[in-house]
Amino acid sequence: MGSGPDGLTPMIMRENAARWLKQDCAVMQLNHLTAESNIANPDPSINLYGRSMDSAIRKAWSEKGCRPSYEPSSRIGASIQSVDPQLARTYGTPAGGTIIQKVLPGGAAQQAGLMPSDIVVAVNGQPVAEDNDYLAVLLASPAGSPLDLKVWRGGIYRDISVKPVPTVPQLSALPVSSTPMVKAAPAPSSTSLQGMSLGAVTPSYAQAAGLPAARGAWVIDTVKGSAADVAGIKPLDVIVEVAGQEIDNTADLVAISGRMRAGYKTTVSLLREQQRHDVQMVLKNE
Description:
10 helices; alpha+beta; 15 strands; Pdz3 Domain; 3 domains
């Protein structure tokens, strides 16, 4: 699923300082290395994308008062790129996530079984709408600690655990500021309910998946044969309503299920590929 000039156009258009101000300084630093690599590419469209990215990151970096980090991080030995929503619709892949472009021979990613064209949609139970979501979890994790990935490959979701290798990242040519860099906040844990692993709907995932707002309970995975699986709920579904009550987050869903009569089937409304679906599901066992 290559980018091409048309595929890169929306990615170039989205580059602005406001987008990067939402990111941790360390995430910006790592992405600036990608921008420099794109600038060195002879392909005009990739070069333009790199320059747009470089300009946006530099503005955000300066405004946020970031400085380069000399602390070790971890790498899995794979190059990644955000899923292009337009191409995703064309090829029938998830609208959000990060694509594994290449894997380093003998690296942690290859040893774990990751392959080029795999799409990572969740890391440690947290939804991944773009490569920055993946990097944020990586940076918040202790160096070398395992990452549990939810991967889409050929229409099937797979669980792959990979143990990153601690490394010292190369520093990019971003300016130094006297202001200390803010560390990435630890990612919240996922919630389990009736065979569903649930996560928060982030603004970036909502935008990538074409959701009207960053609300609801994001289904990371379902257990085969569970109440959720029997009801027809699938990974990447977003539950937005239960029994006529709106769901803003996973806590709402858990609270409503706790008030349900045991064994009672209720209507669960969800969004799947921008379409609303209603299913009947038991939210509380007898």
